[in-house]
Design goal:
The protein has helices spanning 4-60, 74-88, 90-109. With 110 residues, it is mainly α.
Length: 110
């Protein structure tokens, strides 16, 4: 468990880092203002401070996983048949699903 002093020190450390980066950005924007105008200097500074962490996050992002193929079995077969039947006769599909669930529940208890 983290003590209160360590938690406060951590929050204070993060706050000081954020303030330091903010002043660094302000100083850089002010230095670039005569050459690029105030808006241009601020935009260049924002790009300079935002681009490295953004590129790092994109490089470290995990690749999307490939979807796993569905398992083949009796339950999958029932589900696919009920789905096909539900398009044409929804009430019959609901009744069959209730019956299949009851039978499956009965067989699992044994």
């Amino acid at each position: 468990m983290v003590s209160a002093r360590k938690a406060v020190a951590g929050v204070l450390g993060v706050a000081l880092i954020l303030v330091g980066v903010s002043f660094l950005g302000f100083g850089l924007a002010t230095a670039l203002a005569p050459a690029l105008s105030l808006a241009g200097g601020a935009a260049a500074t924002g790009l300079l401070l935002l681009l490295p962490p953004l590129l790092w996050a994109l490089a470290k992002a995990p690749a999307p996983e490939e979807p796993q193929p569905a398992a083949h079995g009796v339950e999958t077969l029932w589900l696919s048949e009920l789905t096909r039947l539900a398009v044409k006769k929804p009430l019959l599909a609901v009744l069959l699903a209730i019956g299949a669930g009851a039978v499956q529940s009965f067989w699992r208890k044994r």
